[in-house]
Design goal:
Helices cover about 20% and strands about 30% of the residues. With about 450 residues, the chain is an alpha+beta fold. The chain folds into 3 domains: about 200 residues, Rossmann fold (3-Layer(aba) Sandwich), CATH 3.40.50.300; about 55 residues, no CATH class; about 120 residues, Distorted Sandwich (Coagulation Factor XIII, Chain A, domain 1). The protein has a 6-stranded mixed beta sheet with strand order 5-6-7-3-8-9, sandwiched between helices. Helix 4 runs parallel beside helix 6.
Length: about 450
């Protein structure tokens, strides 16, 4: 029987919203004294006074049965999470944005501490949570390999044995003696993953950071994680790519609002996630630009995928209309908007976008982009839409995954009234021509068109 290498008991984590920490010791002493007396926080806070209930919850090390009131200015990123991971298992952690996936991995990696609960880990952990995790930007790639190895407890001789293999896997041989601060995000991820996967950790933790790399490198990384798992080591993998989770992982955990919603076989958990419609709705809008997702440069106001005006629902025959509304707050951004269409297995079907700048100068104001998905293009099934805003066709300003989701219903047109879902990602209705040649070769019949 496999031994337990990670045991999580009643793990909870909360964040206090809007609190600005003191820059001086006297500020922290004043805050502590106010809490002891049950008074409001004397330091400034965005949106009002800090409630004394916070101090009570923190002092009591709140558990799952001692939750703040609904109007409390507190965010519970994790709520009473309990599960175990056995040695050699590959665990996929899935859920919508904000479900608590990254917070869980940060606690396991000892980046942050839990509010309550307990985590017991047996073995050495290597984590890849963000681009450049554990890398010093002023050091070269070579120096960072040795630095990360030392952090993991490896000796210099052990790192030297793996050095050539790490560099070859990362494909940054020509830049290995260049400071990491001059690497692109993709190059940084290549080297970071190569170090994390090759320095023999007992537990490998990988967040969605692999999405930064190109498709070939992602495939390479998934293969390496499979090799790590088959070697008896444990892998924790967070991804929105459901196909990768089903292929790579043996076990799945579905998080919703910081709590464990489902746990079990990876394929079954992914199916529950997709069937429950937890990847969004067909339309999302934010009327107030100040609260809309984005940053100081651009904010997403509305995104929707709808059937044409004469159709009640989206079907294979109707096609669909994609619309994205956003607000540009800075002039001269050379702004572009790109959408990514992903199917229910997490496979990217295509990307398409539009440059909204004129003479390399985007104007301040609200924009509305729209396009048409033609009929007989998508197969029946569920799809989600990711939206990305970029600058100069190379820098990412803001990206939001799973903004909206929509269903394409099946129809009988062009399939001999067969209502079963056809195999394949797309379902085109192509015009085929055929010619019949007589056996005597005395003539050729006229071309005939058939549609299937």
């Amino acid at each position: 029987m496999s031994s337990v290498v990670i045991q999580i008991d009643h793990l909870s984590k909360h964040y206090r919203l809007g609190v600005i920490g003191g820059k001086r010791l006297v500020d922290d002493v004043s805050r502590c004294w106010a809490r002891l007396r049950g008074h409001d926080d004397p330091l400034s806070k965005v949106g009002g006074a800090v409630r004394s209930q916070w101090s009570e919850n923190i002092a009591s090390n709140a558990t799952s049965t001692d939750r703040p009131a609904p109007n409390s200015e507190m965010l519970w990123a994790l709520r009473d999470v309990c599960f175990e991971v056995n040695q050699g298992e590959t665990l996929g952690i899935i859920g919508r944005n904000g479900a608590g996936k990254s917070t869980l991995l940060k606690i396991l990696s000892r980046v942050t501490a839990p509010t309550s609960g307990e985590v017991r880990v047996k073995g050495r952990i290597a984590s890849l949570l963000e681009v450049g995790t554990g890398f010093h930007p002023e050091l070269t790639g070579r120096e960072n390999i040795f630095l990360n190895g030392a952090i993991l407890g490896m000796t210099k001789s052990e790192i030297r044995m793996k050095f050539d293999e790490i560099v070859a896997f990362s494909e940054v041989e020509n830049f290995i003696d260049t400071p990491v601060k001059r690497y692109s995000s993709g190059m940084t991820v290549r080297l970071a993953f190569a170090v994390a996967a090759h320095l023999d950790p007992e537990i490998l933790i990988v967040d969605e950071v692999l999405a930064v790399g190109d498709a070939a490198f992602q495939k390479k990384c998934l293969g390496k994680m499979g090799d790590v798992a088959r070697g008896g080591r444990t892998v924790l993998f967070v991804s929105h790519n459901m196909a990768a989770v089903k292929t790579l992982c043996t076990k799945g955990v579905l998080l919703k609002d910081g709590a464990v919603w489902q746990i079990g076989d990876a394929a079954a958990v992914v199916g529950i996630y997709l069937q429950a419609g937890m990847v969004g709705e067909h339309e999302c809008s934010w009327p107030d630009p100040a609260s809309a997702p984005g940053n100081q440069s651009v904010r997403l106001l509305r995104a929707c995928v709808r059937p044409p005006d004469s159709a009640p629902v989206i079907t294979i025959d109707t096609g669909a209309i994609i619309q994205v509304d956003f607000h540009c707050a800075e002039p001269g951004l050379n702004l572009d908007c790109t959408i990514y269409l992903v199917n229910q297995e997490g496979i990217l079907l295509f990307e398409s976008g539009c440059d909204v700048s004129t003479s390399e100068d985007s104007k301040v104001g609200t924009y509305q982009l729209s396009s048409v998905l033609p009929p007989h293009f998508l197969n029946a099934g569920r799809y989600s839409l990711n939206v990305l805003f970029g600058q100069n066709q190379k820098f990412v300003l803001f990206k939001l995954d799973e903004v909206v989701a929509f269903e394409v219903e099946n129809t009988a047109t062009g399939r001999g009234h067969n209502m079963a879902v056809s195999p394949g990602i797309v379902r085109p209705l192509l015009n085929w021509q055929y010619r019949h040649f007589s056996d005597s070769r005395n003539g050729v019949n006229r071309p005939t068109t058939a549609i299937r």
